[in-house]
Inverse folding.
């Protein structure tokens, strides 16, 4: 019954509220003069979005920061939670792991996605090739973690990777028990999942490049490498920036793969996992909130760079 009521509210209530707001807004605007209408209408249309952001983004962010200033007993401790995090040597290992995810995961996903998009565009079975590469993206991180836990198993009769290396005379390896190799092997799992996403987006951008432009360059004597680096790459730069931003944010908030495959052991923990550990294992919401704020601080510069880039693009149009 509750599910049915929720469905009715979503299907009927939400559109009704939207329509009611539109009608009410236009009724209110009708009472103003022409010049006033032009000034007031944008603010009234933006108001619901602003309220939504305030309730679901701005307020939780402020509340999280306030929580980070209290200890687990509710006593105000100021920035002590932040000091404790950086006083513990383990947190620097966490930051280093996140840096590895940020550089290796982002770089390899974008580069591989771009290479595969360009190569797949030249084969007859393009759709099939892209579908096969994109399939891992349809798998949840938890499922991918379980799959690759078996792939990395030290027993060659279970672990596919060790079965492969023992076939050529190499001893089985404990792939996820020694740093930094374990972090790199975990990053490979993320790459396996996200290359398909990068390929699809970059392939769509590639389709938007005029074939006449490329053919004209080839007729003028440009090699394929020159066509790629001097025409395709510059024209794909905005698309690459969007993909890179998405992948960077994904790298910064990595959690599922770490949780499933190592549980944060063997020096593989990242910021996202530290938040979980502080909140649900150590039962310290203040420290957890401090970790969340640190993650937010890491993401904000990336968003500011993208906002600036969008402003430059709009100014060029």
């Amino acid at each position: 019954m509750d599910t049915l009521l929720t469905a009715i509210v979503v299907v009927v209530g939400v559109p009704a509220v939207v329509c009611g707001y539109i009608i009410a807004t236009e009724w209110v605007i009708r009472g103003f003069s022409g010049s006033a209408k032009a000034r007031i209408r944008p603010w009234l249309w933006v108001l619901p979005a602003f309220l939504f952001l305030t309730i679901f983004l701005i307020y939780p962010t402020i509340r999280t920061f306030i929580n980070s200033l209290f200890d687990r007993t509710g006593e105000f401790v100021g920035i002590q939670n932040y000091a404790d995090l950086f006083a513990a040597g383990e947190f620097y290992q966490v930051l280093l792991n996140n840096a590895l995810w940020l550089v290796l995961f982002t770089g390899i996903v974008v580069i591989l996605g771009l290479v595969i998009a360009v190569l797949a565009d030249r084969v007859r079975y393009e759709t099939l090739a892209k579908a096969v590469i994109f399939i891992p993206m349809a798998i949840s991180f938890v499922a991918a973690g379980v799959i690759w836990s078996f792939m990395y198993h030290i027993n060659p009769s279970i672990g596919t990777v060790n079965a492969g290396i023992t076939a050529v005379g190499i001893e089985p390896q404990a792939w996820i028990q020694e740093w930094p190799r374990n972090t790199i092997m975990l990053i490979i799992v993320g790459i396996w999942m996200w290359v398909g996403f990068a390929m699809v987006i970059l392939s769509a951008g590639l389709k938007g490049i005029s074939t006449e432009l490329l053919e004209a360059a080839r007729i003028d004597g440009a090699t394929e490498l020159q066509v790629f680096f001097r025409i395709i790459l510059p024209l794909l730069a905005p698309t690459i920036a969007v993909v890179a931003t998405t992948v960077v944010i994904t790298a910064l908030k990595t959690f599922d793969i770490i949780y499933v495959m190592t549980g944060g052991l063997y020096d593989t923990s990242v910021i996202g996992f530290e938040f979980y550990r502080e909140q649900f294992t150590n039962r310290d919401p203040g420290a957890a909130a401090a970790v969340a704020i640190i993650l937010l601080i890491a993401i904000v510069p990336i968003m500011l760079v993208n906002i600036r880039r969008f402003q430059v693009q709009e100014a060029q149009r």
In short: The chain has two domains: 2-67, 84-316. Residues 94 and 270 are 5 Å apart (CA to CA). The mean pLDDT is 88. The radius of gyration is 25 Å.
